[in-house]
Amino acid sequence: MSESKPAMRPGELLFEAPRRGKPPRHLMDLSPEQRRAAFAELGLPAFRADQVSRHWLGRLSDDPDSWTDLPSEMRQQVAKMFLPELLNPVRVVDCDGGTTVKSVWRLHDGALVESVLMRYPERVTMCISSQAGCGMNCPFCATGQAGLTRNLSTAEIVEQVLAGSRSLDRGQIAGGPGRVSNVVFMGMGEPMANYGAVVESVRRLISPAPSGLGLSARGITVSTVGLVPRMKDLATEGLPVTLALSLHAPDDELRNTLVPVNTRWPVAEVLNAAWEYADRTHRRISIEYALIRDINDQAWRAELLADLLVGHLVHVNLIPLNPTPGSIWTASRPADEETFVRILRDRGLAVTVRGTRGREIDGACGQLAAATT
């Protein structure tokens, strides 16, 4: 008889981040209602909050002097009170002819995070961080090797997308002016371990201006290594985002090593939470699976993975591992990758192999930040 697990209490933290200096309050931390209330507390007309939000989110303008519908003396007051600089760029590198741009940002307390902008012919995707570092301790991940520094605030998350949006809007990315169409929470950190800020940032991203950026919820992907209680919570939020489950192994014996949180929520429990999410949201689950040479890329594991997934609303995203310096983990041989893909497709599963953009610019998540001082 298996040991029963204690129920999660409402509001209980699954993994508490270290406490460091709290980021200064920012407009993007506040809901539209909170913004109006905050302006009113300063003796400013509440409608000014909508005007500032429209400039910041709709026009992507971070220059208060250009906000000519506000009194000139109010512009600097608002900027000082509500728009502190949260992200200071310390390193920016690009590849793929300038269509892939990776940024390292220093936060107010010195913590480093990364974001990546990837421009494709039909879309622009931003990969953003939800934590500085990560506490999940997955051994093949550069971020996991660094450990967890702290959670990001809602504004620190949203500002990563805004920084990319402004670069595109101003024609600073190869290909000319454009707009962000997709956002994936697959940068540094475990999004479900910073649940509140991640959900609020999604609301900012998908709400129309002046409340938010007006992105499509279907263009947002939130990843997790399998924090089951938070996966269940996300299914109730009314946010039709894509849930990406970083599975990486179909069997508990191996996954306990590759994804240590599996010892708390094993494969069957994690997949049941994913299927519950698909049932409630009618959104296809993305199964993320990093192919690691001689570790999880055997043909029999492909068959076992297919056994678990066939019949469900699911898409498999195979990821050739982007190795980190000094790591024993490396990408699968091409022949093994091809066999793995063929087995899954022969079983009727939708499969893609993720491109390897950014490898020459320390593309593995956390790798560039680790090399930055």
TrEMBL record:
Compartment annotation: Cytoplasm
UniProt keyword ATP-binding, yes or no: no
All copies of domain Radical SAM core, residue ranges: 120-360
CDD domains: Radical_SAM
Cofactor(s) listed: [4Fe-4S] cluster
InterPro entries: Aldolase_TIM, Methyltransferase_A, RNA_MTrfase_RlmN, rRNA_lsu_MTrfase_RlmN/Cfr, rSAM, rSAM_sf
GO cellular component: cytoplasm
Keyword Methyltransferase part of the UniProt annotation: yes
GO MF terms, alphabetically ordered: 4 iron, 4 sulfur cluster binding; metal ion binding; RNA methyltransferase activity
Matches recorded under Gene3D superfamilies: 1.10.150.530, Aldolase class I (3.20.20.70)
Chain spans, region Disordered: 1-26
Keywords assigned: 4Fe-4S, Cytoplasm, Iron, Iron-sulfur, Metal-binding, Methyltransferase, rRNA processing, S-adenosyl-L-methionine, Transferase
Annotated GO biological process: rRNA base methylation; tRNA methylation
Chief place where the protein resides: cytoplasm
PANTHER family per UniProt: 23S RRNA METHYLTRANSFERASE, RADICAL SAM CORE DOMAIN-CONTAINING PROTEIN
Descriptive protein name: Unannotated protein
Species this chain originates from: freshwater metagenome
